[in-house]
Amino acid sequence: MTPLLLVLGCIATMFAAAMASGKPGRAVADTALLVFLIGIIAIADLVLSFFVDTGNAADFAAVGCAASFALDSVYGLMAPERQRQRDKMLRRLMKRRA
After folding, report:
1. Which residue among 1, 37, 57, 61 has the highest number of C-beta atoms inside a 10 angstrom radius?
2. Domain that holds residue 92
3. How far, CA to CA in Å, does 81 sit from each of 12, 15, 22, 67, 68?
4. What is the domain count for the chain?
């Protein structure tokens, strides 16, 4: 229950930071990416649990990913130029794939 609350707190922080900067779409995209990452972590934990005792490793990994996204969004408020560079790189990557 505690990892769930920590992840939800990080998501709330991401949305609060995005609303403060006026770009809530970034928080939605980061949340969608976080959901995929947590799914990958869950699948990896399921597979590894057949061979070794993973304990709470998946919980720690999920909270770590959520915390990194929350810190990235808060840092984006303090350093908007870095966020613009990230957006440019993502646009270039998406154009290459199209």
Report:
1. 61
2. 2-97
3. 23, 19, 15, 21, 18
4. 1
